[in-house]
Amino acid sequence: MRSTQPGRQRRPGPPLRALTEAEGPRNCGACCSTSRARRCCNTAERTAFGRSVADFQANRFTLAEIATEVQVARVFLDQCVAELVAGRLSAVDAAMAKWWTTELQQRGVTRCLQLHRGYGYMQEYDVARDFLDARASTLYAGTTEIMKEIIGRSLRP
Ligand SMILES: Cc1cc2nc3c(=O)[nH]c(=O)nc-3n(C[C@H](O)[C@H](O)[C@H](O)COP(=O)(O)OP(=O)(O)OC[C@H]3O[C@@H](n4cnc5c(N)ncnc54)[C@H](O)[C@@H]3O)c2cc1C
């Protein structure tokens, strides 16, 4: 962001800085990915052999696993959001939140897609769009590998 005074660079205050520096977009992406991972668990009613698809234990286990991972991610994200708002979110925590939640979204939506019946493959429906977007979410604002690089470097003695 440029100052109106030529030759001087104005550093934005905390709220704007939260949106313009890398931690903000990474944390924002992490929040989106987590909520989209959760919504893919809301499977459409589909009956097979006289029962809802979600009534089959194997499918219930799939949904339970994803819902649990989402809940765990939310707890960490709540902490990250509070740190971000306070202007204290570290690059390492932002990187952890970003790679973990975007990979979670990808894993979750890939597993849940077929539980949504044919709607899972039609782009008019959220789950199909989430399937496409999940892959890109692991790339923009820094790829998973770059996030791990940031974290890994912080662990060096
Ligand atoms: C849908 C989408 C929207 C985007 N929107 C924006 C936007 O709004 N604004 C913006 O500025 N950019 C945007 N981007 C760009 C995005 O942030 C970059 O493409 C991304 O960060 C990867 O950087 P790069 O393209 O320079 O690839 P590179 O950094 O060259 O990486 C290429 C490959 O090498 C791997 N790699 C690189 N370095 C290492 C390493 N040290 N160790 C291991 N692997 C490594 C990467 O993981 C990746 O797989 C968008 C990208 C996508 C896909």
Task: Describe the overall structure.
The chain has 157 residues and is an all-alpha fold. The chain has a single domain (22-148), classed as Butyryl-CoA Dehydrogenase, subunit A, domain 3, CATH 1.20.140.10. It is built from 6 helices and 2 strands, in the order H-H-E-E-H-H-H-H. The protein has helices spanning 14-20, 23-39, 57-85, 91-112, 126-137, 144-154, and strands at 47-48, 51-52. Strands 1-2 form a two-stranded antiparallel ribbon. Helix 2 (23-39) packs parallel to helix 4 (91-112), helix 2 runs antiparallel to helix 5 (126-137) and helix 3 runs antiparallel to helix 4. The two termini are 35 Å apart. Flavin-adenine dinucleotide binds at residues 136, 139-143, 145-146, 149. Residues 136, 139-143, 145-146, 149 line the site of flavin-adenine dinucleotide.
Write out key terms for the chains shown.
Butyryl-CoA Dehydrogenase, subunit A, domain 3; mainly alpha; 157 residues; binds flavin-adenine dinucleotide; disordered N terminus; 2 strands
